[in-house]
């Protein structure tokens, strides 16, 4: 068959798509009367040249690793989970309940407990869409979108009517007890001589995210379940013929996906805000889609793409601070990345395939 | 609840249902042709922005409407490029378009108006004026029917009447014209349409062009009819509610009208009453907000009348060789 070498498929196609997205973003910046090169320098300066910038970049990246992994696990089973946002929202509820109502002696135990709670709540939120897809064939994209809105309404209700301390104006839970506060990069790495990561929210959950990358790799490529998930994703009829239950596999894949999305809340609620606030996810569930597409659904790719988006996020905040470019520029870049790496994939791939085939013919 | 309040709630139901109805019919054309469109939200948003921005700059609501429609149709074209020409994933393309609109509108608004991502408030000529239907004033004193005619039926902007007229028009196009037959066929069995010598690609592009046009009307009504100007993310999930209404309506125009009126009513009630007290039992406002989505999930689950989407929805058509 006329195919590209694997490296081109895994590296070259995403890179070209990214380049296209970057060129268009630069044009957008030019169109609103700013200098793209200056803007880029400012983003690098703010996000990567200081340790505090890295602290923010890695903080955002942590969120995107979780949501990116969530989307990719579902993608492996050919399911499109747009519900990361809602699952992370409900995961946050799990974190809050566990941090507020269990007297934890030490943050490490609290982190384990909260992570389990976040994953369980997130998985639970994915359960109904998963079941409906598996059993009744309701389109998972639509149901997970609906569940995002239901999650937002539910969280709103819980925060305003149940968790909000009396007399407080903003809809948020009380501050979590001090024993559950997670060590930030500053706590871990800064010394008196080297005040690193000052004031930045990056924290120990970043390492949890790296662990999750490894766990997902192990799951997808080294376990029977992972094989079943991939088999189902490639061909449902073949999977069925091989004795794999589609219902079971769909539900389990979505539970894992929802759990991963839920885990994001340990970073936002426990690591940063130290309480549960409304809209803590800030669209990270959706960025997971871009991250998974760019990372080609492989944990290493997801990790790198998440760092890239962390950089864009932090850099975008810097831009908004110093120039007339609002933060929404990042939303545009994110949209272009999703468009080129996801929807317009064939536009990049087909000509590239032709080039490779032509080169091979010449050699032959 | 007295009669006057009831009329007010129903009046605001009509207003709130209008953008939902237009977007829902937009989705209907697209999905009936086999192109799933979760980018309704984005198209409405970009149309809302451009219609408000151009109306603010020129003072003409008609020019605003025109630019809103053009912008929504451009996004539609991009969706078509991705999902019809390059046979990409229609869902991913829709998601991308929603983000593109959310980002671009604020970016351009900031560049043009420097008001933190909004347009200036629109004055008289920049907004749709309320139309008073003939005899509304004269009939007003007639008990019951007079106020209904005056409050509920008369006194809306022209886009409201256009939206409601779109329902029979859509029905007629889909079920009584050759184009409509082909459109429905291409969403069910594109290979059959292709065999009959009709272009699948052209039909689908035509469908999403209509989709863009209707989304343009919806967005324009939102920014220049319902409200006076554009604010960031002003569609606030209406595109998704329209999508929900479309499923609720089982992809049929008349059902779409009732579904949109129902969801409009829910919005109107949630807007008017914060928490509804049913004698000791309170329905929280958040529940009312979530109700359209919950109802859609129930319908999707197939417990109350199964919703079966067009068969070829979401699949790019590859010609046999």
UniProtKB/TrEMBL annotation, chain A:
<feature type="transmembrane region" description="Helical">
    <location>
        <begin position="204"/>
        <end position="221"/>
    </location>
</feature>
<feature type="transmembrane region" description="Helical">
    <location>
        <begin position="53"/>
        <end position="75"/>
    </location>
</feature>
<feature type="transmembrane region" description="Helical">
    <location>
        <begin position="87"/>
        <end position="104"/>
    </location>
</feature>
<dbReference type="GO" id="GO:0005886">
    <property type="term" value="C:plasma membrane"/>
</dbReference>
<dbReference type="Pfam" id="PF02653">
    <property type="entry name" value="BPD_transp_2"/>
</dbReference>
<keyword id="KW-0813">Transport</keyword>
<keyword id="KW-1133">Transmembrane helix</keyword>
<feature type="transmembrane region" description="Helical">
    <location>
        <begin position="140"/>
        <end position="160"/>
    </location>
</feature>
<feature type="transmembrane region" description="Helical">
    <location>
        <begin position="241"/>
        <end position="264"/>
    </location>
</feature>
<keyword id="KW-0812">Transmembrane</keyword>
<keyword id="KW-0472">Membrane</keyword>
<feature type="transmembrane region" description="Helical">
    <location>
        <begin position="110"/>
        <end position="128"/>
    </location>
</feature>
<dbReference type="InterPro" id="IPR001851">
    <property type="entry name" value="ABC_transp_permease"/>
</dbReference>
<feature type="transmembrane region" description="Helical">
    <location>
        <begin position="302"/>
        <end position="323"/>
    </location>
</feature>
<dbReference type="GO" id="GO:0022857">
    <property type="term" value="F:transmembrane transporter activity"/>
</dbReference>
<feature type="transmembrane region" description="Helical">
    <location>
        <begin position="12"/>
        <end position="33"/>
    </location>
</feature>
<keyword id="KW-0762">Sugar transport</keyword>
<keyword id="KW-1003">Cell membrane</keyword>
<feature type="transmembrane region" description="Helical">
    <location>
        <begin position="329"/>
        <end position="348"/>
    </location>
</feature>
<protein>
    <submittedName>
        <fullName>Simple sugar transport system permease protein</fullName>
    </submittedName>
</protein>
UniProtKB/TrEMBL annotation, chain B:
<feature type="transmembrane region" description="Helical">
    <location>
        <begin position="42"/>
        <end position="63"/>
    </location>
</feature>
<feature type="transmembrane region" description="Helical">
    <location>
        <begin position="254"/>
        <end position="270"/>
    </location>
</feature>
<keyword id="KW-1003">Cell membrane</keyword>
<keyword id="KW-0472">Membrane</keyword>
<dbReference type="GO" id="GO:0022857">
    <property type="term" value="F:transmembrane transporter activity"/>
</dbReference>
<feature type="transmembrane region" description="Helical">
    <location>
        <begin position="290"/>
        <end position="309"/>
    </location>
</feature>
<keyword id="KW-0762">Sugar transport</keyword>
<keyword id="KW-0813">Transport</keyword>
<dbReference type="InterPro" id="IPR001851">
    <property type="entry name" value="ABC_transp_permease"/>
</dbReference>
<dbReference type="Pfam" id="PF02653">
    <property type="entry name" value="BPD_transp_2"/>
</dbReference>
<dbReference type="GO" id="GO:0005886">
    <property type="term" value="C:plasma membrane"/>
</dbReference>
<keyword id="KW-1133">Transmembrane helix</keyword>
<feature type="transmembrane region" description="Helical">
    <location>
        <begin position="12"/>
        <end position="30"/>
    </location>
</feature>
<feature type="transmembrane region" description="Helical">
    <location>
        <begin position="158"/>
        <end position="175"/>
    </location>
</feature>
<feature type="transmembrane region" description="Helical">
    <location>
        <begin position="95"/>
        <end position="113"/>
    </location>
</feature>
<protein>
    <submittedName>
        <fullName>Simple sugar transport system permease protein</fullName>
    </submittedName>
</protein>
<keyword id="KW-0812">Transmembrane</keyword>
């Amino acid at each position: 068959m006329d195919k590209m070498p694997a490296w081109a498929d895994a590296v070259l196609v995403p890179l070209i798509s990214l380049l296209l997205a970057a060129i268009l973003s630069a044009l957008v910046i030019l169109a609103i009367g700013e200098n793209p090169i200056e803007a880029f320098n400012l983003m690098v300066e703010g996000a990567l040249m200081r340790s505090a910038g890295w602290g923010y970049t890695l903080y955002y990246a942590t969120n995107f690793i979780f949501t990116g992994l969530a989307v990719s696990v579902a993608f492996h089973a050919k399911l499109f989970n747009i519900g990361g946002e809602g699952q992370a929202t409900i995961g946050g509820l799990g974190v809050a309940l566990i941090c507020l109502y269990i007297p934890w002696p030490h943050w490490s135990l609290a982190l384990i407990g909260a992570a389990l709670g976040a994953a369980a709540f997130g998985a639970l939120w994915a359960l109904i869409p998963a079941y409906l897809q598996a059993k009744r064939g309701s389109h998972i994209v639509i149901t997970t979108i609906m569940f995002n809105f239901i999650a937002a309404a539910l969280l709103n209700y819980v925060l305003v009517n149940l968790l909000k301390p009396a007399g407080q104006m903003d809809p948020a839970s009380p501050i979590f007890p001090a024993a559950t506060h997670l060590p930030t990069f500053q706590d871990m790495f800064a010394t008196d001589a080297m005040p690193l990561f000052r004031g930045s929210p990056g924290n120990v959950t970043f390492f949890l995210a790296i662990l999750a990358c490894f766990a997902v790799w192990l799951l997808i490529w080294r376990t029977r379940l992972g094989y079943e998930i991939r088999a189902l994703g490639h061909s449902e009829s073949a999977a069925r013929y091989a004795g794999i239950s589609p219902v079971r596999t769909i539900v389990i894949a979505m539970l894992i996906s929802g759990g991963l999305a839920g885990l994001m809340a340990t970073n936002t609620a426990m690591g940063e805000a130290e309480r549960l606030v409304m809209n803590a996810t800030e669209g990270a569930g959706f960025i997971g889609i871009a991250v998974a597409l760019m990372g080609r659904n492989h944990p290493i790719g997801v990790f790198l793409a998440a760092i890239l988006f962390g950089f864009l996020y932090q850099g975008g905040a810097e831009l908004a601070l110093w120039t007339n470019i609002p933060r929404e520029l990042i939303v545009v870049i994110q949209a272009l990345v999703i468009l080129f790496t996801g929807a317009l994939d064939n536009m990049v791939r087909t000509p590239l395939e032709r080039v490779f085939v032509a080169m091979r013919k010449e050699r032959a | 609840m007295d009669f006057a309040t009831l009329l007010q709630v129903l009046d605001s139901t009509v207003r709130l249902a209008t953008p939902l109805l237009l977007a829902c019919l937009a989705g209907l054309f697209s999905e009936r042709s086999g192109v799933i469109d979760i980018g309704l939200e984005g198209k409405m948003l970009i149309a809302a922005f451009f219609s408000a921005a151009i109306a603010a700059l020129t003072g003409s609501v008609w020019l605003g409407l025109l630019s809103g429609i053009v912008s929504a149709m451009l996004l539609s074209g991009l969706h078509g490029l991705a999902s019809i020409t390059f046979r990409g994933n229609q869902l991913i393309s829709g998601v991308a378009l929603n983000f593109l609109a959310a980002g671009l509108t604020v970016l351009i608004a900031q560049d043009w108006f420097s008001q933190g991502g909004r347009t200036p408030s629109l004055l008289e000529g920049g907004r749709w004026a309320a139309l008073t239907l003939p005899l509304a004033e004269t009939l007003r004193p007639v008990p019951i029917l007079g106020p209904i005619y005056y409050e509920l039926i008369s006194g809306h902007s022209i886009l409201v009447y256009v939206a409601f007229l779109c329902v029979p028009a859509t029905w007629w196009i889909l079920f009584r014209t050759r184009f409509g037959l082909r459109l429905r066929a291409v969403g069910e069995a594109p290979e059959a349409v292709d065999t009959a010598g009709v272009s699948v690609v052209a039909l689908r592009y035509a469908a999403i062009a209509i989709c863009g046009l209707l989304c343009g009307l919806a967005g324009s009504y939102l920014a220049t009819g319902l409200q006076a100007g554009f604010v960031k993310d002003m569609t606030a999930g209406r595109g998704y509610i329209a999508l929900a209404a479309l499923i609720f309506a089982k992809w049929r125009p008349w059902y779409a009208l009732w579904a949109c009126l129902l969801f409009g009513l829910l919005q109107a009630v949630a807007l008017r009453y914060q928490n509804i007290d049913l004698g000791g039992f309170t329905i929280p406002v958040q529940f009312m907000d979530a109700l359209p989505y919950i109802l859609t999930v129930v319908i999707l689950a197939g417990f109350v009348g199964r919703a079966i989407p067009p068969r070829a929805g979401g699949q790019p058509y590859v010609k046999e060789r």
